Amino acid sequence: MAKTHLLPLLLLLLLKPLPNVYGVGINYGTLGNNLPSPKKVAQLLQSTLIDKVKIYDSNPDILQAFSNTGIDLIVAVENSHVANVSSDVSAADEWLASRVVPFIPATSVVAICIGNEYLTTDDDKLEPNALVQAMQNMHSALVSRGLDRKMKVTTPHSMAVLASSFPPSASTFALNLMPTMTAIAGFLADTGAPFMVNAYPYFAYRANPSTVSLEYALLGNDTHGVHDPKGYSYTNMLDAQIDAIRSAINALGFGNRRIEITVSESGWPSKGGSGDTAATPQNAKTYNSRLIERAQSYKGTPMKPKDKVEIFVFALFNENKKEGDASERNFGIFNGDGSKVYDVDLSCQFCSNGGTVGFSEKVSGGYRGPSVWCVAKPHADEKVLQAVLDFCCGPGGVDCREVYESGDCFQPDKLIAHASYAMNAYYQMHGRNYWNCDFKGTGLVTFGDPSYGRCRYPQQ
Ligand SMILES: *[C@@H]1O[C@H](CO)[C@@H](O)[C@H](O)[C@H]1NC(C)=O
Ligand SMILES: *[C@@H]1O[C@H](CO)[C@@H](O)[C@H](O)[C@H]1NC(C)=O
């Protein structure tokens, strides 16, 4: 009795396409004179678990390089251009038409950030009202082009928008920013865009190394952490920072509206100025490894344990031309030459490279985990499957001879069988990232070898 019930359950578990693995975002800043070309960067990232890349402008070379990579891009209107976009909808549309439209849909642009830390940047020329108006104009321009579902408009804030962040449940925005933050929160709730915050436990720790626990700052599990008067218990500072933002949004009266919080930047430098004992390769490795693990899990914060928080690691590269103290130039996971600053695992369960990602390293082979294949879902839409088959055997570069008439996989002569063969070959070729088996929702990762008779499904 028990056995007959167990079998279907087991199959179901084995066939389920990884319920708990999510991609990770990364910030790709380019203030360096020794960085690889965008094309090389796109190639590197394709073999990792990074599936979202955030940039600080709308560099056409980057937008071009990420076309057809399956990686989502978040682009930005620079602070200096926000006033222009705020002038009217046609200015926003002009930006969109010249900066983004030429690259879509081949490049998947999913969000436009209006400025970066606009409200807390020391520059009298930046007018707070221009920010909100620019966001609204960009959204209107997207609506009129029918692109507003695909692309969200938002703006990343620094933690300095808060008047206080402690305790987390009592946080509020700075008094002078309340009207602007109210307008922004309303806009985000209405358009379904996330509230973005750049959150750095590193800076808080560096300022108070004797009072802040390193384990708490390093995204650890500090059981002595912080006990909020409302009953929440914080074991790491990043959670406390996210909930401080959440409380401040709620205090504006948006407690019953859904506004997702995204950590648009977080990271830890591997090197700092003299006397900076926090910025070490070991601490950077610990923080960023935990951050990446956290980003992949479906995990919220003590206040909202079920609300997954999307995270963008800062940053991809050390940027040698960045201003400020030494730490600013040393937040990267990679050096300009593409070597890793310290070892951090960017592979995913279905990646083939087992963490040996780097520009000079071979990105295939070396994977010793369980065998995995990609097949078509049993009831996948035939039209989509045909398109997938055509894509894989054409631009996708798969050798499809086995499914042609004299091939070993021609029988059964069914679209779903042929598509499965092609999808698997494509998936194996592209490093077995789980998104390489998506195919508009028609693909399924499986641990069972789909090979039969003389038809062999390739494995890396
Ligand atoms: C906005 O920028 C565009 C393109 O750079 C320029 O043609 C236009 O005159 C600017 N508009 C305003 C109001 O500054
Ligand atoms: C943190 O530590 C506590 C006490 O040792 C333990 O019960 C809990 O499971 C740990 N949490 C995580 C996420 O490791």
Q: What does this protein structure show overall?
A:
The protein is α/β, with parallel strands linked by helices and 460 residues long. The protein folds into 2 domains: 1-21 and 367-460, no CATH class; 22-329, TIM Barrel, CATH 3.20.20.80. Helices cover 33% and strands 13% of the residues. The protein has 13 helices and 15 strands. It has helices at 2-15, 38-46, 60-65, 79-87, 89-99, 128-144, 178-191, 201-207, 214-217, 237-254, 281-296, 382-393, 415-429, and strands spanning 24-27, 50-54, 72-77, 108-114, 152-154, 156-158, 162-164, 172-173, 195-198, 226-227, 233-234, 261-266, 310-313, 373-376, 443-446. A 9-stranded parallel sheet has the order 5-4-3-2-1-13-12-9-6. It has a two-stranded antiparallel sheet with strand order 7-8. Strands 10-11 form a two-stranded antiparallel sheet. It is globular, with a radius of gyration of 24 Å. The chain starts with a helix and ends in a 14-residue tail after the last strand. Residues 6-20 and 348-368 have low confidence and may be disordered. The structure holds 2-acetamido-2-deoxy-beta-D-glucopyranose (2 copies). The site of one 2-acetamido-2-deoxy-beta-D-glucopyranose (NAG) has 4 residues, from helix 4 and helix 5.
Secondary-structure element string: HEHEHEHHEHEEEEHEHHEEHEHEEHHE
Cofactors and ligands: 2-acetamido-2-deoxy-beta-D-glucopyranose
Question: What is the total tally of β strands?
Answer: 15
Question: How much helix, percentage-wise, in residues?
Answer: 25-40%
